[in-house]
Amino acid sequence: xFENLTGRLSDAARQLSGKxxxxxxxIKDTLRQVRLALLEADVALPVVKGFVERIRExxxxxEVGKSLTPGQALVKIIHAELVSILGSQSVPLDxxxxxxxxxxLAGLQGAGKTTTAAKLAKRLxxxxxxxxxxxxxxxxxxxxxxxxQTLAGEVKALHCPS
Length: 162
Hints:
The chain contains six helices and two strands; from the N terminus they run αααααβαβ. By secondary structure, the protein is mainly α. It folds into two domains: 2-86, SRP54, nucleotide-binding domain (Four Helix Bundle (Hemerythrin (Met), subunit A), Up-down Bundle); 92-162, Rossmann fold, CATH 3.40.50. The chain has a two-stranded parallel ribbon. β1, α6 and β2 (158-160) form a beta-alpha-beta unit. α1 packs antiparallel against α2 (24-40), α2 packs antiparallel against α3 and α5 (113-126) runs parallel beside α6 (142-155). The model has no long low-confidence stretch (mean pLDDT 84).
């Protein structure tokens, strides 16, 4: 999901190449594409409207420095807005809780939960020296169980089929 969203946002920003500054006219189509990309990524409409409006306000009339293209300037604005929404502080996992510590990953189909679970398991095994078990509870996609079992084997995690 994030790869698709990143690609769509990059394509939208590329439309601004060759422009000297960000104006209402030259960012209108770009912001429309940003809006569509976010909506297709299942971001709530009120969030999308507010996000796009704040980007538009920040981008209008922004002088594009000699070292940045207008597209890069817009990407910088989008990045700053995302950081302000999501926060710049990361919160570490609390692994000191009474074992077993359960981490639940939930999301839309195709969002990358299975791959993320394997990457997280690898980090916990390699960096934190934890014993990890991956359990699939996806009853609608039986192939997910096999995929998780394969990935668990690759990262040396235990696997429990549901």
